[in-house]
Design a protein that fits this description.
The protein has two helices and six strands. The chain is α+β, with helices and mostly antiparallel strands. The chain has one domain (3-125): RutC-like (60s Ribosomal Protein L30, Chain: A), CATH 3.30.1330.
Length: 127
């Protein structure tokens, strides 16, 4: 099976030596997405719901570039700095997944790149 690098300017550029996503067969694996606005390069801060929304928009943009979408996501991983924000994150998350919810893990971590409060990655199918 061949692997293919996925790249789009509709999501933030990678800040290190990695791809925005890799496609293998009919699966797409995104790298973790921070709450960075791809148009300005600025990170959204101090509003966990806006941060969550931007992370999911970034993941969605990458999946669209790969020929799929969040509707075909099978697994997301959410990394957060403060588990006390879990319910606020879930409110926004539910907007993106009103039905057919993918599997998910949510992990509190000590620190994220750029001192972000949240980072989200996904695995999705290309149908």
């Amino acid at each position: 099976m061949e692997k293919k690098m996925i790249q789009t300017d509709q999501a933030p550029k990678a800040i290190g030596p990695y791809s925005q996503a890799i496609q293998v067969g009919n699966l797409v694996f995104t790298s973790g997405q921070l709450p960075v606005d791809p148009g300005t390069g600025e990170m959204i801060v101090n509003d966990i719901q806006a941060e969550t929304r931007q992370c999911l928009n970034n993941v969605e943009a990458i999946l669209i570039a790969a020929g799929t979408s969040l509707k075909n996501a099978v697994k997301l991983t959410v990394f957060i700095k403060d588990m006390n924000q879990f319910s606020k994150i879930n409110e926004v998350y539910a907007e993106f997944f009103p039905e057919d919810k993918p599997a998910r893990s949510c992990v509190e971590v000590a620190r994220l790149p750029k001192d972000a409060n949240i980072e989200i990655e996904a695995v999705a199918m290309i149908l």
